[in-house]
Sequence to fold (304 residues):
Amino acid sequence: MWALGEPLLVDRAAERRDLADLASLHAVVVRNGSILAMDGRLAILAPAEQPSASLRVYLGVDAGRDVVALVPEDSAFGTDTDGIGGDGMIPLRALLGQLAQRGREGARDRELAATAVALTTWHANHPRCAVCGGQTEPIKGGWVRYCERDSREHYPRTDPAVIVAITDPEDRLLLAHASYWSPRRFSHLAGYVEPGESLEQAAHREVFEEARLRLRDLAYVGSQPWPFPASIMVGFTASVDSSEFVLDQDEISEAMFVSREEIVELVADGTVILAPHGSIARRLLEEWYGGPIDDATRAERITV
Ligand SMILES: [Zn+2]
Fold:
């Protein structure tokens, strides 16, 4: 299990962002949110093996060497795969799922992959200054974009979202299906934190908006970077006094409280597809359940 409370495994070495010659460093290859993998693990290429780059971003020192995220100039580099244990450009969501089952090495790769995708997506989406509209250029190893026209610096943003595992008086767990999810996928209620509220207030508000439930005993569990495209998911548990809910059908099309026995049956007969391994949603689910839930390959194949 990924230790949410542990320090980073990769040294970000922020003091080297300005100094390193990015073109001479090892690289993780990233394109449109997919990452180059070999044998289901992150591929880290030596300079001589790298494609020509349109962007390099300094990630830090890993295993004694500096590593960058590299966006290839040629958009045709690599082959997209379905992400199951193969080689090629693998979508981050699928890669995170398979790395979650590879212990500490996998956790280190997850850090590099999540950071690489978060930063390169931010660069792709912020070519211009939000204030004056001037073109911006990456500086400080790609951790800042600078506008020459008005000398402003722009920083990558991280948008917090809350996710809450809710149990009823019979210790059944609420599973919900969001209208825009792929069929049969169920997970906890979640939503973005809005300006002017705390994480806890966001959890109370979102759950009330989506299901008209009032939470008790809201407790923080942990957080997880979730660069789809720029989130950090903040996980909570909470209980409710009554299992009566009223759904906001625009957002949540279906929900149910399930017992531990029921969830096993629903997964086994294919009625329910769970959140992928390695996600905080999965961790909240399995902490309630009391151990791993066997869903074979279903969870890894899910795309949201
Ligand atoms: Zn500007």
